[in-house]
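Support request, please re-run this one:
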Amino acid sequence: MTKIAVLGTGRVGGSLSAALTRAGHEVSVADRSPGAAADAARTGQVVVNATPGAGTLERLLALRGELNGKILVDVSNATVDGPDGLPARLLYPGSSLGERLQAALPGTRVVKTLNTMLYRVMTAPAALAQPPTAFLSGEDPEAKRVVHGLLEDLGWRREWITDLGGIETAQAAEAAVLFVPHVIRSSGFAPFAVSVAR
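Re-run finished. Output below.
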């Protein structure tokens, strides 16, 4: 059992917190009340960032002390949305939210994952007709090992998880969000994920 703090109470955060609780972990969810995020981050061994990516960096910088020494699982995409509310471009072209977080929080072990799919696939990967891929990006091998285990608890098979390497590889994973609006306009909000076929 791992103590996990989930930052974000939307569809992504709610889905992940429910699934991790079902898997037997002790999960606390930070609501919008003052101090809730700091309290949750302070008590969690692993902190999941499921906040809207455009405001994540500022939000998490305020938790620098609470996040020190923790594993931060970042599942967000930092985008500028178009008039229809769908991602139109990356907020950090030539970089990534994962890299920005690691640079701003040097005492925190950032692992980027689960950001290349619709949220329902994060906790039900086997529901797709073809196996999806969950990518890992991060500097700390032990942190990635822990996150790998959490992904397996969420139903991800080992062969569906690909370690891309250091946090700089989050650029490629985050760029995949640019597919999302086109796929949604073409096929609707049916669950889908980026998958590497071998």
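The chain is about 35% helix and 20% strand. The beta strands are 3-7, 26-30, 46-49, 71-74, 79-81, 87-90, 109-112, 134-138, 161-165.
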